[in-house]
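step: validate -> pass
step: tokenize input -> pass
step: predict -> running
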Amino acid sequence: MLEVNAEERLQLKKSGQTFLGILNDIKRRPEDAASELGVTTNEIYSIINGEKLISQDLVDKATRIWPVNSRDFFNIRDDCPLGVKIMTAEESKQSSRIMDRAGKPYYEYRDTAMSTTASFRPEWIEELCIVENNDATSTIVQWNNGHFLHQFTYFVGNVNFYYEENGIKKIAVMKTGDSMYITPFTRHTFATRSGSDTNGLILALTYGNKITGDTQQEMSCLPISQGSNLALDFSTTNNSSASLIKFYRKISNLTVEEMSKRTGFSKTLIDTFENGEKIPDIAETKKIACSLGINTRDILPNDKIENKVIIKKHENTNFWYYPENKKSYKFSELASTTTLPDSKAFEVEVFDSNDENLDLEVGLHQYVYNIGNTQISINWEHDGTKHSKIFKSDDSCYVKPFTPHNFRGTGKLLILRIGGNLTGDSKRELSFIGKDNVKRAISETMQWFDSHDEH
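step: predict -> pass
step: emit ->
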């Protein structure tokens, strides 16, 4: 047998745990799987025990006879085994490519830190198009068609941001420190304002949230006419409330009459709720939720309906010092949306400190870019081992959730945090399962039954 290194052994172990999880889900013992796949029980156990990688031939057989997909058998590649992954400014520069639009250079793109374990797709973009005025309908600028990912943008220099809202072209005149958020598929473009000493620059941090990966794959199995029904009417608070109540009533096949019996409300009142004429108060909402067998939060509309584009000027940012009593950092709150409560963006000033405490630890995926002119250090701990790296100007990095870390020196950082699939309803489901059982959700280690107890 060929010698394998530590990383390969870890991948084999994870692959085996994933395979065992699949067998548990479809209620196959190793001997059942062996019989159906036409291999020996020893081979099945060697895969489960992380001694052998499952072959593509076995995966193909399994997907033909079991209700599983090929991707179910493969783990994502973890390219961040130490908890932090750094991309240097020089590495970023090597990825440079010029994008032409209308036959002329329009943008210079560079990659910044990305990881296979998170849905960040952050880009450094220099605006090569120069505009002479602030006309939103300028024929010089070239618009895109919008894209699937959410986008947070941090501006450096004199940049005009063009965007379309309700079919109307608009412009925001931006400068260093300003920021914005745009929802997926919002048409937009950027250009440098004339008279600037240097071309404008943006850090366009695009990222996926809950409807990427498996969710997007599941949607793709539906005809467009049916899949479109997944999106409820959230155009107003009243419509949001009405759509949620109606959706949960219909998936239970409850009639308005039956709901009236369960809540004690008149059919007319229920109709006003479902038509968006009235939003139920909290007491009424609790009764409706109880009648539907769901939690109250499931039928609460968003507190406010926000624009598709949110712009934050740097002079209007809230700021504070952190940690309490030590003030190693100054946090300034950048553009965000309440629609994505687990997405947070900050400009962070780092003050010189001799404190060795790892004073930052957040349960979100984290992207960091050194927007200052000085180098600082990033120090962190992963799986019991401490690490330290120099973090230079224009370097960027990715930090895994719950990685204790700090930044030391004097400088300025841009930080974007996103939840990915590990927050919101996923976190609630894991919390309901409980900490002890989450260990098995992360890596399955046992069969769903004890064969020695069979009768």
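step: describe -> The chain is about 25% helix and 25% strand.
step: cleanup -> pass
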